[in-house]
């Protein structure tokens, strides 16, 4: 029996723990992102009533709502509607960084130990080395890939052991273009023919192209690291 197998009872416990995490997050995603059980408009009205503290209040609320899978574009558009494109973009980025950090923290607490146990010492050490070299840029790159839930990715990154500072900085860097796009569209909701709306659409097109390139390159790097890991595994040396 190899080190990755571990005691059967312990292994089953870790698999069950990760499975429960997946079920919980999937249910939460359905309820919030698809069934829309959260009244985002109501939250926005409450934040607007806080007066001068509204930008900070909205950033904090957006961080919490984002961690529960309220779609980021909706939160960013609300920020633009309340604060305009300039201040709204910074508020959106504050909420985005908060969501990334919170999700990564919870993911680390819930699944990091189990993920390391199931990977085994050799693969876990290899993953740690990859995180030290490319963790920050993995977070940045994920933010450019369309169709991927940022919150779900942050939970996964946390379970894999990405440091919280890498999550926060990576989210700020990688989310800036999209933060501007959706915040600007929210600020232009009354006049989508305004130059600001056209600029937002242009930036969105550039981000989509970069996202496709990032996804392709990320897949190639993953394949290369997997090949290198398999070549360095004990089984490969024994064969």
From TrEMBL:
Membrane topology value: Multi-pass membrane protein
PANTHER family the record matches: GOLGI APPARATUS MEMBRANE PROTEIN TVP38-RELATED (PTHR12677), TVP38_TMEM64 FAMILY MEMBRANE PROTEIN RV0625C (PTHR12677:SF58)
This protein's name: TVP38/TMEM64 family membrane protein
Main subcellular location: membrane
Transmembrane segments: 15-35, 56-76, 82-106, 153-174, 194-215
Domain VTT stretches: 70-187
Compartments, record wording: Cell membrane
Entry's family note: Belongs to the TVP38/TMEM64 family.
One GO CC annotation: plasma membrane
Keywords: Cell membrane, Membrane, Transmembrane, Transmembrane helix
Pfam families (alphabetical): VTT_dom (PF09335)
Organism annotation: Nocardia otitidiscaviarum
Source organism superkingdom: Bacteria
């Amino acid at each position: 029996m190899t080190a990755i197998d571990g005691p059967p009872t312990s292994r089953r416990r870790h698999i069950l723990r990760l499975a429960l995490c997946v079920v919980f997050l999937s249910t939460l995603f359905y309820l919030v992102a698809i069934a829309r059980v959260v009244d985002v408009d109501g939250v926005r009205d409450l934040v607007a009533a806080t007066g001068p503290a509204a930008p900070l209040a909205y950033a904090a609320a957006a961080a919490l709502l984002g961690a529960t899978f309220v779609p980021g574009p909706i939160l960013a558009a609300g920020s633009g509607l309340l604060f305009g494109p300039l201040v709204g973009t910074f508020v959106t980025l504050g909420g985005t960084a908060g969501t990334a950090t919170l999700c990564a923290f919870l993911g680390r607490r819930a699944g990091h130990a189990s993920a390391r146990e199931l990977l085994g010492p050799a693969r876990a050490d290899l993953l740690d080395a990859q995180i030290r070299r490319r963790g920050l840029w993995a977070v940045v790159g994920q933010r450019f890939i369309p169709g991927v839930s940022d919150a779900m990715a942050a939970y996964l990154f946390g379970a894999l052991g990405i440091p919280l500072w890498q999550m926060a900085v990576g989210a700020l860097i990688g989310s800036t273009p999209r933060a501007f796009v959706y915040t600007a569209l929210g600020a232009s909701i009354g006049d989508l023919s305004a130059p600001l709306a056209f600029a937002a659409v242009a930036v969105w097109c550039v981000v989509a192209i970069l996202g496709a390139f990032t996804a392709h390159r990320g897949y190639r790097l993953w394949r290369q690291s997997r090949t290198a890991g398999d070549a360095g595994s004990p089984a490969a040396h024994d064969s």
